[in-house]
Amino acid sequence: MSDYYEVRHTVGFEETNLVGNVYYVNYLRWQGRCREMFLKERAPAVLADVRGDLKLFTLRVDCEFFAEITAFDELSIRMRLEELTQTQVQFTFDYVLLGEEGETLVARGRQRIACMRGPNTATVPTRVPEELREALAPYRAEGTAPRGAVG
Q: Is this model's pTM higher than 0.85 or not?
């Protein structure tokens, strides 16, 4: 098993701009897609909880770009756990171009989420569900350790 969760993606024309390279907002969409597929495949009970009153609030998203990609490029979006607190999770995402000459890191992103519960008018932080903690354990980025502090 690798130390990252991976989603493969082929870039389509609709994801490019007039110049022909990928429009930046798609990198953020791919982060969300990777996170969703992780929940579907590795933590389905968390998805069921989201249909109840668990809310996964995205607090911060960023992406740093190193190279351009274009339509029909093959990508691997690789998610790792960077930080885990009592109520928050931070992921890193590597966007890797898969080419005949090998792999090229074209972008790197981060996403921080908070777990919340309650009605929309009275939402409060809640612990990261145990199933999610367990599902994320194999994907911990090297050199990171879980934090015990309330986040």
A: yes
Q: Is 17 helix (H, G, I), strand (E, B) or coil?
A: coil
Q: Give the start-end residues of each E strand in the chain.
A: 5-10, 55-65, 74-84, 88-99, 102-117, 124-125
What CA–CA distance (Å, rounded) separates 32 from 75? 15
From first CA to last CA, the distance across the chain in angstroms is 29
Residue 109 corresponds to which amino acid?
Answer: G
Residue written as tokens 């968390």? 46
- How far apart are the C-alpha atoms of 37 and 3, rounded to whole Å? 16
User: C-alpha distances in angstroms, 43 versus 26, 75, 112, 113, 131?
Assistant: 24, 24, 18, 16, 6
Unique residue bearing structure tokens 């194999």: 138
- Chain segment 86-145, per-residue pLDDT in tens: 999 999 999 999 999 999 999 999 999 999 999 888 999 999 999 999 999 999 986 555
